[in-house]
Amino acid sequence: EVAGRPALAQRRNVRAEFGEQVAQCLAFDVAGSFLTRRGGLRSTEVVWRTLGEAAALRRARGTTPLVVLSSHLPKQPSDADAALRAAGPDTIFDAVAFTSRADIDRLRLYAKGGYTATPQPGFWRPADLP
Questions:
Q1: What is the pTM for the complete model shown?
Q2: What is the pLDDT of the chain when averaged over all its residues?
Q3: Nearest in space to 74 (alpha carbons), one of 103, 44, 101, 45
Q4: H helices of the chain, where?
Q5: Interatomic CA distance for residues 112 and 110, integer angstroms
Q6: Angle separating helix axes 79-87 and 44-61, nearest 10 degrees
């Protein structure tokens, strides 16, 4: 748990699926609803709330990268997508849709270790990365 934020305590579920190593080197937040028409991060309101929480927790988590887990990522192009990308990978290391096979594969890659210095291409396009 970081700064009393219970969603970041979801690590036990990540440990069960992806192993202890990924739970130790990354912080997680779960964003948005799965059961609404504009689920996950497709809602601009949810994106702004997630960005605010990520920014507020940045100091508390130190250098630990934050991965946002969600049912859906924002559509491209959209205001929600532009807002997430404007924050950059220092604020949100990666955004993973747990309904996407490619995103889950990227999370598994992080679980192997050694991939947390720079986000892997997926949500972040190569042009977005340092």
A1: 0.77
A2: 80
A3: 44
A4: 11-18, 20-25, 44-61, 79-87, 101-112
A5: 5
A6: 10
